[in-house]
Amino acid sequence: MVGAGLFPKRAERPTSTNLETRTSRHHSASAEAKACGQARREANVFPVSLEDHLGDIIRKARAMSGVSAAAAASAAGVTETELSALEESGKSAAKINFSKLVPLIGLNPQKLESIASGWLPAQTDLSLWREIRVFTTAGEGLTVNCYLVWDEVQREAALFDTGLDAKPILDTIAAEQLQLRHIFITHSHWDHVEALPKIREVWPKARLHSGSKNAPVDQRNKTAEIIHLGGLRVTHRETPGHAEDGVTYMVGNWQEDAPIIAFVGDAIFAGSIGRGNQSWELARQKVHEQILSLPPETLLCPGHGPLTTVAEEKEHNPFF
To answer: What pLDDT sits at residue 302?
Structure first.
């Protein structure tokens, strides 16, 4: 994932902390959004590619560590132009001295080498959890994931973020004859809540859940709260850093003892982390304490890029 300033590929949109009354600031995103692989359930969930390529990771790590392009290029044994090309494309014609660069920017050398060698998380067979759908919507040069889960017997459903396009979500709810009871927001950046107004038009009584301290009281997550979704249980952990209102939601008590699913927003991606808009140190700390402390088999569902697990991120994510 890349963004404004040091990360010019993706600009953050202004966000609203009142999710109930938020209106779309960017109608073109909704109008142009296309569902990419709507309602995925098959074993090959995504055409797998990482959200952040090698250059994105290095650029984020430089920002996190406060290392200038000149200092990083010198350590890597390349020119600033060559470093810039690497950060932009993820590829370099010049040989990079990772052994000197990596300690300078605070990454794990073996794990970064794994990323450079083409590591990808194992593809996930979602049939283990039965009733979960992954929606990947696209618009304005980015793709965003959101997720729908439900109790198989009672047909009560919960949505985790909304992405850019409400249609595939609403179509699935109708086709499966579900009742949308809850909408959980991992953080209020525009691309994660763009479709919220249209979903609320159809399901106005669905309860909203948010980590924003400025949200209406009835929308704020409560300490140690457990939400029951039929036989499923939803809990949460605060994971600020990328966003002040960042939250990770865990869904457990699946049939046949399937592992916990954690909806992590942009706190962590496969092989990387979200940009430290609020604080790089806090972002890294909260992922370590609140997400990587979950059981190794926990399925991590990020806001961008492929699904992964706690075990894979502990082994391969160079930020940890």
So the answer is: 98
